[in-house]
Amino acid sequence: MSPEIHSSNFLTDNPALYEQQFPDPEHLAARFVVDLVGRFGGGKSVLDVGCGTGRDARYWTGQGFDVVGLDSSERMVEHAGNSCPGAEFVVGDMRDFALGRRFDVITCLDSALLYCHTNAELHGFLARCRDHLEPGGLLIAEMRNGAFFLGNIELLDGVRERTVVWEGVPYRSRTRLWIDHAAQLLRRRRVWDWPGCAEPLDQRSAWRLLFPLELRSYLDSAGFEVLALFDEPGPRTDAPWEPDAALSDRLSGDRLHLVARLVPEQS
């Protein structure tokens, strides 16, 4: 018998399936952040925007960090709270949230920043970060690199099929990516089916494609100083993340990693 499935957004509404689809047993994403915080002088309070299942928060709290996670999915937030009681989790929109406190570090991983599709949404998110960071606090983000798609169709070639088994049931996804040049978006269509499924579940999403110099411009206008902008290594690069790894600034890879510091206001 299939487990209960919620299908408004197939993966984010089914957190256990999400972790099965995207495992991180070595905590590469969380370790990546801890290493960058150590390198660039961050503190111990963290706001994780787009916290998902709370998997990274579980690691960080074990390392002595004070963590608040924010996500737009109620089911993700509920799952995170149950699996990581040592952190606080809230439902909120990354483009318009107000938590009434400041943090030493804000993280935004797995391309969550790219759900800000318009210029106004990007400005709104960075303004929220500015209002929630301590002076000199760090913004650490990990996302797809818009520059990678200049003449590169590696990720746009055909339909990719994948099957993940959850509670004994095989869930098959077929995914196609394409670029909406006018809107500067990477669009995705993903169709799910599984045994006993009445009809395939067809879901669509998109990410803003940002170029490195464009991202620098947004950050500068929002009052941030870019400390590091690199393509590899990272938690999702072919050369896996290792502590103290040298940072490549070629910016030709699929991923883009950012460390920026909020510039203290001059009195």
From TrEMBL:
Give every Methyltransferase domain span: 46-137
**Top-level taxon:** Bacteria
The entry's keywords: Transferase
Give the source species.
Saccharopolyspora taberi
Protein name per Swiss-Prot or TrEMBL: Methyltransferase domain-containing protein
Keyword field contains Transferase:
yes
